[in-house]
Design a protein that fits this description.
Chain B: It is found in: Cell membrane. Chain B: This is Carbohydrate ABC transporter permease. Chain B: It is a multi-pass membrane protein. The complex is a heterodimer of chains A (about 375) and B (about 280). Chain A has about 375 residues and is α+β, with helices and mostly antiparallel strands. Chain A is about 30% helix and about 30% strand. Chain A has 12 helices and 19 strands. In chain A, the strands form 4 sheets. Chain A has a 6-stranded mixed beta sheet, sandwiched between helices. In chain A, strands 13-17-14-15-16 form a 5-stranded antiparallel beta sheet, with no helix packed on it. By secondary structure, chain B is mainly α. Chain B has 2 domains: about 10-60, no CATH class; about 65-270, MetI-like fold, CATH 1.10.3720. Chain B has 12 helices and no strands. Chain B has helices at about 10-35, 40-45, 55-65, 70-100, 105-115, 125-135, 140-165, 170-175, 180-210, 215-220, 230-235, 245-265. Chain B is globular and about 75 Å long. The chains are: A alpha+beta (about 375), B mainly alpha (about 280). The interface of A and B includes residues 112, 150, 165 and 181 of A. The structure holds adenosine-5'-triphosphate and magnesium ion (MG). Magnesium ion (MG) binds near residues 42, 43, 82 and 176 of chain A.
Chain lengths: ~375, ~280
């Protein structure tokens, strides 16, 4: 039985629908990534799972049980807020220990004054202090343990927020862009740490990001969203190799998948497989599945516009002859040994095994028969 | 370790202005003390000496004999503390609802709170007296607590509500995620952050209860029930009272209020929510 199940779940604020009805299910132990551009509804969806935002219609199930009405506390989740939401009056140590302390307090112990005495007592319990130290060590927060959040940098605050959620042992981890404010090195390290944690605890993670590298490297499955609509659900490989539509094709992958418009295909029918040329579809092909050959060879005639060397490889931007503008530009990922210069005329050859076709009108993927091979 | 904000260097002018202001505000207080320590005879026959005279203790003790100073002050304390506790309790809950919930009639409640401030308190004197007669709250300190709290509540609620509006709601959400029950969220997360507003409201409510005269003078008839405000005015009206005695009682009346303010004002600071959320 899947741990998380969405059945026609939707969200609207008044008349504006921010999340259209969708179905999905998440198995126990999965690392699900919600990927999409800013404002597409990722945080909204995550908050609905947490019970922080009300579900407008549809049902959300945990282990087969409808939880729409469940209180946040009953859901047993850890949550990293996109805005951190640190307790400003508490030190970093108190922030991180807070969930552990709360787990151990009885309802009547929260009375004013009495509560603060009990909280500071609990803070010194070896099992709590040890756990806080361990997680602070892991997130390099030890030097800041006695500071307040107001005296930390953005990245340090983000790590405190992460620490506060990872210190517990919930059944579901919900993380809203937990690495967005970290520098590249720390981000890479944290990516590895979170993946390792996921493997160690074996719990379900739902992770929001707009960074596709994070999505591709960490996810067992990705939900790609745009404008409140689920565009595709699949493993990183599926999403990368078989994008469901032109949005996913261009959003996932860097540089994005090239989309060659039907008129260019029609103008050079010999450059493509016969089935493709006749289909009238948009041809999608990733930069690494394109090769540049010298003029005269069979293929699509292009002119080299820009050559960008990134070290091991080069990204070569070309323009089909007779075209100009960003729309028709095609990017090729080539080895750095390829010597091409600006303005040079070449031909572009496609790897027919790795071509995606999209309906010219709707942008939806068209099933292919002709490219088997 | 809390970071100290760098203090600006004070210019001589700032210091001068501060000295002048202190003198203007402080002189009457000094003169009150000075008068309290003088002898009645000197006050009525010679120009009052500028420096306090310290030799008149016996005369003062004689003058104060029969004035129920202790019961006056303790009655005032009961009224003021009762008013403060009741006001803060109700105002905090009311402010929370006004700040966090979007309910029908929310605007109306805010308006009604303010409209009470447009009517002079004297207007309610007779109706409340009539009401309290039936309830047995006349000649009863708790009746005064109730009246004072009612009058202090609107402004206190407003002050605390503004304080709560400044606390990001996500902190409460975070506390819920961290498995804190509502009472825990209130006491561990919210209250420490609205403490400055609560302190400000408490000062207001305390002074309202401590200094209130009109209702106390009307509702309380027994001498043993007099709060200091009433007792002082009765004392001042009696031709037999000596000026040093009046000023001594006035000093004793003012001192607790000053102490309370000094204790509480340390908590009236701003900037407690720094670092809570991004941006
Ligand atoms: N309380 C609200 N009332 C009305 N609209 C809202 C509300 N909260 C969010 N929205 C809208 O819902 C949409 C989705 O917001 P959401 O915060 O889920 O985006 P997101 O994908 O997390 O974006 P980002 O990557 O920038 O965090 C946005 O268009 C936003 O304007
Ligand atoms: Mg978001």
């Amino acid at each position: 039985m899947p741990q998380l199940q969405f059945s026609s779940v939707a969200k609207s604020y008044g008349d504006t629908q921010v999340l259209e009805p969708f179905d999905a299910s998440v198995d126990s132990g999965e690392f699900l990534v919600l990927l999409g551009p800013s404002g597409c509804g990722k945080s909204t969806l995550l908050r609905m799972i947490a019970g922080l935002t009300e579900i407008t219609s549809g049902e959300l199930l945990f282990d087969g049980e409808t939880v729409n009405e469940w209180d946040v506390r009953k859901r047993d989740i850890a949550f990293v807020f996109q805005s951190y939401a640190l307790y400003p009056q508490m030190t970093v140590r108190q922030n991180i220990a807070f969930p552990l302390v709360m787990d151990r307090m009885k309802p009547w112990q929260h009375l004013p004054i009495l509560g603060s005495i009990i909280r500071s007592r609990l803070m010194h319990r070896p099992e709590i202090a040890g756990e806080v130290d361990r997680i602070a060590e892991q997130l390099s927060l030890v030097p800041y343990l006695d500071r307040r959040p107001g005296a930390l940098s953005g990245g340090q605050r983000q790590r405190v927020a992460l620490a506060r959620s990872l210190v517990r042992d919930p059944s579901l981890y919900l993380l809203d862009e937990p690495l967005s404010n970290l520098d590249a090195k720390l981000r890479t390290q944290m990516r590895v740490d979170i993946t390792a944690l996921h493997q160690k605890v074996g719990k379900t993670f739902v992770y929001v990001t707009h960074d596709q590298i994070e999505a591709m490297t960490m996810a067992t499955r990705i939900i790609v969203m745009d404008h409140g609509r689920i565009q595709q659900i699949g493993t990183p490989d599926e999403v990368y190799d078989n994008p469901a539509n032109t949005f996913v094709a261009t959003f996932v992958g860097s540089p994005a998948m090239n989309l060659i418009s039907p008129d260019i295909v029609a103008a050079h029918p010999t450059a493509f497989e016969p089935g493709i040329a006749a289909s009238g579809a948009i041809v999608g092909v990733r930069p690494e599945h394109l090769m540049l050959a010298d003029e005269g060879a069979p293929g699509l005639p292009v002119t080299v516009e820009v050559v960008e060397r990134t070290g091991a490889e080069a990204i070569i931007a070309c323009q089909p002859q007779g075209q100009e503008g960003d729309e028709s530009r095609i990017l090729v990922r080539a080895s750095h040994t390829q010597r091409r210069v600006m303005g040079e005329a070449c031909v572009l050859q496609l790897d027919p095994a790795h071509v995606s076709l999209f309906d010219a009108a709707t942008g939806v993927r068209v099933p292919q028969t002709s490219t088997v091979g | 370790m809390s970071a100290h904000s760098p203090r600006r260097k004070r210019s001589p002018w700032t210091i001068l202005v501060a000295i002048v202001l202190t003198a203007v505000v402080g002189f009457p207080i000094y003169w009150m003390l000075n008068t309290a320590l003088s002898s009645q005879r000197v006050l009525y026959t010679e120009p009052q000496p500028l420096l306090p005279q310290l030799g008149n203790w016996e005369e003062l003790a004689d003058d104060l004999d029969g004035v129920p100073v202790v019961s006056m002050l303790s009655n005032s304390a009961i009224i003021a503390i009762g008013t403060t506790v009741l006001t803060i309790l109700l105002a905090t809950l009311c402010a929370y609802a006004l700040s966090r919930y979007r309910f029908h009639g929310r605007g109306l409640v805010s308006f009604l709170l303010f409209s009470t401030q447009m009517v002079p308190q004297a207007v309610f004197l007779i109706p409340i007296y009539a009401l309290f007669l039936g309830l047995g709250l006349v000649n009863n300190l708790w009746g005064l607590v109730l009246v004072n709290a009612a009058f202090a509540l609107p402004v206190s609620t407003f002050i605390i509500k503004v304080g709560m509006d400044g606390i990001p709601y996500e902190l409460e959400e975070a506390a819920r995620v961290d498995n804190s029950p509502p009472l825990g969220t209130l006491t561990a997360v919210l209250l420490p952050l609205v403490l400055p507003s609560i302190a400000a409201a408490a000062v207001l409510a305390f002074f309202a209860g401590w200094g209130e005269f009109m209702y106390a003078a009307t509702f309380v008839t027994g001498r043993e029930m007099w709060p200091a405000s009433v007792g002082l005015s009765v004392l001042a009206e009696q031709p037999s009272s000596s000026m040093p005695a009046i000023m001594t009682v006035a000093t004793l009346f003012a001192a607790p209020a000053v102490v309370f303010f000094l204790l509480v004002q340390r908590h009236i600071v701003s900037g407690l929510t720094a670092g809570a959320v991004k941006g």
